[in-house]
Structures are given as structure tokens and as C-alpha cells.
Records
---
Amino acid sequence: MDNIIEHIDAWLIALAFAVAMLASWSIGWWRGRRMAPESGDDPGIKFIDAGVAILGLLLAFTFAMALGRHDQRRLTAVAESNAIGDFHTCASLLKEPFRSRLQDLIRDYARFQLDTPHERLSESDQRRATQRSLEMQAGMTDIVREAIAADTPIALALTNTLNNVSSTNAARLETYQEKLPWSIVLLLFLSSLIPSFLIGEKQGLSQKTHFSGSAAFIGLVALVIFVTLDLSQPRQGLIRVSQTPLETVIQSMTK
């Protein structure tokens, strides 16, 4: 179910939410119009307030969770860029021929990571890209092993920066596997339908229809859901992680 939600565009899901909420409001309004008007205070208004409050809490919770995951993807991208830059700097302290060989491979690795849109790749393409990354990491490991065998004085620093490159790459790729659970999306769906129905019923019962206000409420809820789901779909969402840190590192390598 999580995979199904991930492959549906966020705007389609948000549109489905809006249509369902509008239909729920219409059904409530139709039912309210056929109910006898009540005199005095209506205790049912408390249920509307409670339903809207619960919906607001759920929207805030899921938006914060989606935004946190987006920030995590951004931070891992920065961490990987820094790790690649540190490794390149450390490699510049090696003697030839290790220095040129390792720096050339690091530059190729950085360009490969920049040119590979991990967030938009299918699972099969992602496996091939990951395999290529591992092969390049293995090549860098071989050069580091040769440099250490030649008694380089920066063996410890070289090993640590190499480990950082592989670990930060694995951490960044892992962030693209996180998904918004389908159970939360279903809970949002139900929590948006019930207040819409109660609001429509209350308006129909009072013989006062506030369509513009109801439409604005439905539109705002759908917009928040769209942004939340878009943040939770790193492989196809409109909101993407900037590759500027990696581009800056590559530019510094070519100077």
C-alpha cells in the first residue's frame, strides 16, 4: 500500500481529498436540510469543533514529520558533499602517482553522484546506480590500500575520509526509502471527511449555506495535504533537495 501511495502524484491525492470532502459536505448539507430545525443551543457544534481540532493536529503532525524527513535528506546531501570534499583534500597530500589517480577517481565519483537523479530513479535503476557507486568506492579503496602499503604518513586520515564517503552515501540513499505510512494517509482521509460532513449538516440544518467559507476550508486542507505528500515523495515530488553543495565541491576540485 505504501508503494501505491508513493507512485501516485501528490496533487492527484490532494484532489481526491478535496472532491471527497466536498461530497461529504454536500451529503451533510442535504441531510441537514431534511432535518427538523432545533431550538436553543445546539450541542452538536462541539463535535464540529472537536473534529476540526483533531484534523488540525493530524495535519500539523504529518506536515512536521514530512518536513523533518525532507530536512534529513538535505542534511545528508550536505554531509556527503563535505565528505567527498574532505577526501579529495586528503588525497591531495599523497605522493604521485597515488595523488592524481585518486583525485581523478574522486572527481568522477562526485560527478556521477551529481548526474544521477537518485530521487527520480526507479528501483531497478537505483540498484544499478548503487552498484556503480560501490564499484567506484572499491576503486578508491584499492588506491588507498596501495598508498598505505607504500607507507604514506596520512594513512589514518585517508582511511577515515574514505569511510566517511561510503557511509554518508549509504545514509543519503537510505533517506529516499522512507515513506509516509498509508495508515496515516487513511487517517487523514477519514479525519477530513467527518468534519466536512458535520459542517455541511450544521449549515443545512440552520438554513444558512456558507459555500465560500466551506470551499476555502476544503481548499486549504487539500493544499496542506498536497505539500505534505509532496515532501514525502522524494522520488517524484516537486520539492527537491538542492544539489548546490555537491556542485560547489566539484567546482573546487577543478580549480
---
Amino acid sequence: MTKTIKNISHKNIDTLSDGVFSIALTLLGIEVVALVPELTHSGDVLAALVDHLPTFLGFFIGFVVLFSWWYEYHVGGQYVVGTNVMIVWVHGFTLLWVALMPFAVAMLAETLNTDDFKWGMLFFTICLFGQYWTKILVSIPGLLTKGALDVTWTDDFPLDAKQLQRYLVIFNLVFAVLGIVTATISMIYPWVALAICGLVILNSINPVASMDRIVRQLGKTKK
């Protein structure tokens, strides 16, 4: 029997991911902490705080987005035993958007209520939906060539793996299209785009409930 090189453990991806998430969350806080000298020397701390509300709003939005992504990552990752090249690179490109999120929310905060708000909204939209675009791009070669996309799941995983894979292709495609539409809207009606992004963020804050809905929709669980 020919021996082959096995892929990396999912624990390796988890370790890197937790580190990147931690750094991204810390960078969000640095923006807020950097305001302290200006606030304390302003002569009117309350008025200065009001002037910088967009920065605090950006911090809050960025924190909710990044923490919900981290939550979702580990909810699904706890069932994965093995990996393949597609899984590794999907996680890799997801971390790309995690690393860019502090930039995106900083741009959003700085341009809020200015003529450049559409640009800040565009950058934020790209970073929010970018993971869906890269997931599709990374999975296309394997789907076209019928490459090794199999993932080993734990015995208590409540879904049929092949059925889940088909569902995720459709799910990612829907959000990828929504992202393109929202990015387009952001250049014309940035506040509408922000509202759409807000709904997407709210939808992601409880990944356990979201996965339970998938289980019910697919109507197939392991006994």
C-alpha cells in the first residue's frame, strides 16, 4: 500500500485562527484607547466623546463582527476531524478578511456623515462579504475536477456530509451575490447598505441556532 502525506491537523488551523482573531480584536481597541489623550485634554470630555461617537460605533460593529465570526468558526470546527487543501485555504482566506476588518471599521468610522461615506461603506461591505467570495473561488477547482474534498467529521455531527456540502455551496453563493448587490448599493445609498450589513451581522450572532435551522431544513440527522 502506497503511503501518502497527510494534511495538517485542524488544531493547527485553530491555533493560527485564534491568534489572528485576538490580534484583530486588539487592533480595534487600540483605535479607542488612542483617543484618551485628546479626550482628557479637550476641556469638555463629554462633548469630545460625542464628537468621536463614530469611532466607538466602529469599535462596537467590528467587535460584534469578529467575535461572531470566531464563534461561528468554532461551532463548526468542533465537529471537524480531518482537513484537505480546500478546507485549509478556505480558513486561510477567511483570516484574510479577519485581518482586514479593523481597517474596514476604521474607514467606516472616519467617513461616517462625510462625503466619503460611500467609500468607507464600500470597504466595510467588501470585508464583511469577502469570505463568501473566497469560499466559492477556493472550492471551484475541487468541484470542477472532483478533487478530494472529503472531510472527516466526528460521530456526533448531526448532518449528512454530502448534503451539507451542497447546502453550503448554495448558501455561500446567495451571500456572495448579496455582497455584490450591497457593495453596489453602498456607492449610491450607503445608509441602505449599512442597514443590509446590519441585518447580516444580526443573523450571524447565534451560529448554534443557525446550524440548528440547517439541521431542520435538511431534515436529516444521524441517529
---
Amino acid sequence: MIKKASKKADLIILQELHQSPYFCITENPQNFDFAENFENDLIFWSQVAKKYNVVLVTSLFEKRAEGLYHNTAFVFEKNGEIAGKYRKMHIPDDPAYYEKFYFTEGDLGFTPIQTSVGKLGVLICWDQWFPEASRLMAMAGAEILIYPTAIGFLGEEPIAEQKSQLERWLTIQKSHSIANGIPVATANRIGFEKDPSKNFKGIQFWGNSFILNSKGEEIAKASQDSDEILYAEISKAETKEMRDMWPFFRDRRIEDYSELSKRWRD
């Protein structure tokens, strides 16, 4: 699919933890073995980016040291070099999403990655629910927000709740686009993955990958259950126009936001 997409695209984005099943559905020490070939994974994806002459956003299980692992997006330049990386900052610990068992919180901050196609504000899945993350990326000069994602429904959840969750997921990311005047691209998993522990039926990943322009409008969207390639052209001129006409950055009352650094206001 990367080979096919590279005929039209300069930038290709893969979904979260795309090399393996979503192993975080259980807490199992054996799953750390998925990170054992991490160094070889870097070489492989570097070669892919170079072979197809694309900027490639991957999502890898990074083994930093024994007992120290990250959920990390590595961005490869068209020549195969690593342009930069982002370590997932917000780590969930919810039923069937036991990521805190596996991943240490990121320590690289919210810093865009400079590439030949622009500054990429790469974030990962659970990060997409936090307006602070998207704002800081935009403030640091990101020209597009990118979210490799693995999210879906538990089989036990009612249909109405499933629809509600999906709508909330779409809405929060559209709000990041609108509030920052910036395009957003999200690549989500599809398919059903069983829970090996049998505590749950499993996760039905809900797909619906999409690309938004800087107005928060969908310019490309995938289905819920099929492998697809989404194509879209991002306009930097449109971003400038939106920010000139809707100057949210100008009107921010930064002198009054100090309380945001606290966990809660008592």
C-alpha cells in the first residue's frame, strides 16, 4: 500500500503500533518481546522511506533500555534518514487499553518535526483528546497535526454508546483543527482483535481515518472496516488565510492562563 500511495503522496502516515496486534489489550510480560527487534525495525522503515521517496510517519514499540519502553512515532525523511521522533505523552490505563503497563511517558515534549514537506506536529492516539497537546504543537510551528491511532469499541458496549464514542472522537479532533487553524490527519486501525485473557470479547477498531483542512472540514475519510489509502492535498495558504481571519493566537489571554499548569483548581 505504501508503494501504491507513493505514486501520488509525498507524506505517508501509518496507524498506531502497525507492526503487531494491539497487544495492550492485556497485561502480559511476554508482549515486551514485540520490541526486541526495534533496531532492525528502524533500518527496515528507513529503507522503505528511501525506496519509495516519501516522508514516512511510523509508530513503533521503542526499546530504550531493559525495562524502559516507549510508544514512539519515528519520522523518516525521503532519503531514509530519521527526521525526528515523538514519544507518546499521554498514556491510557483503561479496560483493554493497558498501555501504562508497557510504555513510559514521553520526555521529548511537544516539538514539531522538520521535514522536506513541512513541520509535522506528530502526536499519538490518546494525545488526541487533550487540547493542550495540539495547542503547544501549533504554537511551536507545526503545519499539520498527525495522529497515528488505535481506538475502537469493546464488544460489550451498547450500539448507542459506540456511536456516541465515535462522534466524540471526530468532534474533539475537528476542534483542534478549528482552534489552531491547522490541518489534521488521523490514521486509525481497523478489524476485530480478540482479548487473549478473555476478560473482554475484544476490540473492534473503528477505522474512520480522516484528513481535515485548516477549517476543520473533512477532505478525506475512510470506512470503518476496510484497508484504504486516503489522499488529500494540504494548503499552507489556506492555513494562513484562516489564521488571519480567525486570530485565536492573537487574542489568547496568556497572562491569565497560569492555572493551566495545575492539576485542578481547589
